[in-house]
Amino acid sequence: MRVSDPTSPPFFLWQALIAVLMGILTGALLFNLSSHARAALPHLPTPIKEALAAKPAPPSIPILPNLDKRMVILLMGVDSNGPNCQRYVGTRSDTMMLASIDPATKQVGLISIPRDSRVIIPRGHGFSKINSAHALGGPTLAMEAVSQNFDVNIDHYVVIDTVGLKKVCEFLGPCEVLVEKEMHYVDHTAKLNVDLKPGLHTLSPVEMEEYVRFRHDPRGDIGRMERQQWFLRQVAHKLKEPQVLLRIPELMGLANEFVSTDLSLDQMARLLSFGREIEPHQIVTATLPGEGAMIGGISYWLPDMKASRIAIDRLVGTNEQVLATETSPAEVVTNKPIRVSIRYPRGCEKVADYFETKLTEAGYKVRYKWRVDEIECRHEEIIAHSSRASQENTNELRKVLPQMEKWPTVVNPESRSYTDFTLVISPNVMQSMADIFPPPADSAFATPVVSHVRAPVLQ
Asked: Is residue 79 part of a domain?
């Protein structure tokens, strides 16, 4: 069995496809147009058959069956074995993501699993990095590894090959993306020349690749996974454009070249139906917490299992039996007020004070309020730290501060949390509250601060 060289520069463009997949919740890209799938067309509803058969694009989006229950999918991105080798066989999964699609709550939960996580690989393989599971036993062993180590039930898998992904980015065309900071890196071997400036930019397919591949900062893979999660939210806007939706059958054909999945056509159609109604703020993201360590001369990520339980229960749903036996007394919901911290950049002091006043009046305990560098506040967001930071309590926060109605939620659990929520105020929030706090004529906030620079669109 051939295993991908773990020392070679990883190819991260497939992350762009994960963003695409989750933007329309997998279905739009995963319709399989092989001969087997075409043989199944007679069993599909007539509107779907007409849409798939149309040349070129159909005049309208097909009517699709509804998703009627939660579905948990393990998304994996793997390298290509090359044109002369069997695809997907013996390849490590450079990134693994659990995607929970829940029609009851109208929410998508995405959990990134660090590829270096040290876990027990089932079937007698012992301790190893979790990304080796796919190389050792394909997607079924990878599903077993995630399920058994993190006590989560997984319904299906999607494995994404790197072959053809550039075509998908080219198909989508330029996308508007908020670049959080300056990104500079040159790798001649990997043909990578990253040169991005902070701000809201219209990125070309080449620049999108550079954005999702960049990881040369102190946070390494963790920072890359967070950028991937923000990227998929931003690309979700692109996927709602009529010119993209009307070309879905063409996009499905491209996906057939590099996607392997056990989803049926009916399940894919249901995912597509659900995904068409999802807004970016309904996507809740998390990265399994832990810490890095060297064991036997090998670098691992050691997951914090207690904190990981909070993230999995919040986003994916936990085995009820495990939850009942392992819930820590310290995490049981009490009558104590919800604790909130506020993070803001220079120039947003009035907004931070306003938030503090409103929260205190509503009975919340504002534990910390501190000013940080603007680079740490590029995105406004609600960060959930504890089991008390439930979806219900998040919704209550939004009622107290309507300005946060469409703020994304990021789950960042801690085993011993001193605050339940952190509210991150970006300069954009100051702009949106101009009716409450009119900016001075010479203020930096008189003009949009995240759109003052645009990267060139490469042809």
From this structure: yes
